[in-house]
């Protein structure tokens, strides 16, 4: 019914054809960087599935094409596809693509249902990062569709927004300059951009020549009265701008970084390595090999005045047997005595790191089943915690787990007036899912010295 043919080959291009007009392709789709290995058309979803020899999987609409209209790009590392590609198969019944390498991987195509009318959404798409400008007292959130929104932290109302910040690429990270008046965003297009985020003006673009790699984290640093913007990502380098130099030392993709002013920088990579750099000399200061399995990657890190903490996907380094879920973000309280750990399920666990980060104090939740991507606390007013998630929300909490509100809700709040907070009313997703509620402590067990012939114990209030 579609009257469409799709071909791909060694030139890395995908061509669409009208079978009745074979002389010229109707369209040419770009996006792959290796020869095309497998192609499939899913007519029920109007999708094209393509797999290249570098194990990269792309899902696009044949009505629009791929670049820049790619709907999904499944990176092999993120999708746990490793080894030489041998076979692929798309199953329309389960809407999944099976990829055979050293093992068989199943990539399911899941489309998000439209937001329900009773749910408050800060964005129309997943929120990947958020931050707080102490100077302007504003919260900035960035989404998967490259939309930047600015919020008033005092009331939760939207101040400004602008789109297409990185074209059609998602914004994966953000930071502010030392004064908190300029926003720096990093995108999956491999670029960093500096913004006046109160009017949407792009002030400068930082990008290396050559192939673009996803930016995973960025930071702003001042050394010897000179300011630098830095980024890390899938090209395994630490880029330092505006002098356009880079530090090289990791053997795998760099996923996160943390500053320890005035001179130290720590970076963590997919293979579990942590490197500490001297930013004045540019030399490697320390190399930490963590006692973790080889498939453990560093996904979040932070620095204290006296020590460095790093979280791994299997939690073998600091939180052994305490949590069973992958960590997505960590943040410190201003007093550096509490550690807030967000995981892929949506829980935020609180650890007292004065006790070596081994005993969780309490557990509060963002919506269950929604990965928490950003968790800033350091620059926020005292007693506040800011979260963003793939459920399209940006929320404000007290550090004791009290829910203040969702940015964009109809009712304004005042952070100085607890009676205006949503607490004790929890977010709707938490209310309807009992597994999302904090676990209660068990009652104390009493052992009676008495017994009876039936072997039965009774009690009265």
List keywords for this structure.
four-stranded antiparallel sheet; 2 domains; 36 strands; Methylamine Dehydrogenase, Chain H; WD40_rpt; about 0% helix; mainly beta; about 450 residues; globular; 1 helix; WD40 repeat domain 95
**Class computed from helices, strands and strand pairing:** mainly beta
The CATH homology group name of the largest domain: YVTN repeat-like/Quinoprotein amine dehydrogenase
Low-confidence stretches: 64-69, 304-321, 440-461
> For the CA atoms, what is the radius of gyration?
25 Å
The DSSP helix count reads 1
Shape: globular
CATH class of the largest domain: Mainly Beta
Helix content: under 10%
Strand content: 35-45%
In short:
It contains one helix and 36 strands. It has 461 residues and is mainly β.
What does this structure look like?
Pfam families: WD40. Keywords: Repeat, WD repeat. This is WD40 repeat domain 95. With 461 residues, the chain is an all-beta fold. The chain folds into 2 domains: 104 residues, no CATH class; 310 residues, YVTN repeat-like/Quinoprotein amine dehydrogenase (Methylamine Dehydrogenase, Chain H). It contains 1 helix and 36 strands. The strands form 10 sheets. A 4-stranded antiparallel beta sheet has the order 4-5-6-7, with no helix packed on it. A hairpin with a 3-residue loop joins strand 30 and strand 31. It is globular. The C terminus is likely disordered.
């Amino acid at each position: 019914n579609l009257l469409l043919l799709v071909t791909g080959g060694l030139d890395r291009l995908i061509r669409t054809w009208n079978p009745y007009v074979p002389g010229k392709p109707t369209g040419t789709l770009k996006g792959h960087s290796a020869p095309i290995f497998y192609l499939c058309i899913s007519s029920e979803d109007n999708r094209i599935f393509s797999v290249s020899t570098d194990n990269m999987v792309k899902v696009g609409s044949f009505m629009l094409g791929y670049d820049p209209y790619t709907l999904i790009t499944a990176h092999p590392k993120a999708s746990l596809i490793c080894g030489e590609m041998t076979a692929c198969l798309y199953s329309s019944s389960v809407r999944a693509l099976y990829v055979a390498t050293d093992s068989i991987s199943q990539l399911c195509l899941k489309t998000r249902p439209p937001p329900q009318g009773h749910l408050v959404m800060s964005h129309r798409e997943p929120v990947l990062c958020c931050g707080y400008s102490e100077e302007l007292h504003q919260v900035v959130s960035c989404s998967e569709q490259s939309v930047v929104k600015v919020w008033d932290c005092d009331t939760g109302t939207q101040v400004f927004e602008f789109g297409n910040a990185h074209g059609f690429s998602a914004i994966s990270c953000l930071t502010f300059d030392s004064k908190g008046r300029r926003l720096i965003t990093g995108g999956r297009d491999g670029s960093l951009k500096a913004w006046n985020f109160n009017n949407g003006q792009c002030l400068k673009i930082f990008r290396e020549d050559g192939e673009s790699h996803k930016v995973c984290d960025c930071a702003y640093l001042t050394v010897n009265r000179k300011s630098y913007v830095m980024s890390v990502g899938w090209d395994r380098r630490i880029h330092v701008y505006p002098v356009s130099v880079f530090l090289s030392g990791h053997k795998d993709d760099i996923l996160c970084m943390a500053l320890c002013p005035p001179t130290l920088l720590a970076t963590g990579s997919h293979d579990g390595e942590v490197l500490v750099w001297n930013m004045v000399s540019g030399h490697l200061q320390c190399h930490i090999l963590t006692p973790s399995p080889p498939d453990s990657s560093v996904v979040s890190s932070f620095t204290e005045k006296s020590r460095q903490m790093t979280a791994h996907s299997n939690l073998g380094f600091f939180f052994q047997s305490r949590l069973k879920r992958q960590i997505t973000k960590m943040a410190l309280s201003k007093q550096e005595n509490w550690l807030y750990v967000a995981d892929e399920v949506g829980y935020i666990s609180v650890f007292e790191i004065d006790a070596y980060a081994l005993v969780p104090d309490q557990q509060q939740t963002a919506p269950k089943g929604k990965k928490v991507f950003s968790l800033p606390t350091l620059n926020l007013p005292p007693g506040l915690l800011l979260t963003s998630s793939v459920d399209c929300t940006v929320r404000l909490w007290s550090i004791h787990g009290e829910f203040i509100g969702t940015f964009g809700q109809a009712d304004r709040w005042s952070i100085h007036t607890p009676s205006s907070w949503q607490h004790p009313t929890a977010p709707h997703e938490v209310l309807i899912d009992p597994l999302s509620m904090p676990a209660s402590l068990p009652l104390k067990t009493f052992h009676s010295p008495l017994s009876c012939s039936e072997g039965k114990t009774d009690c009265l209030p």
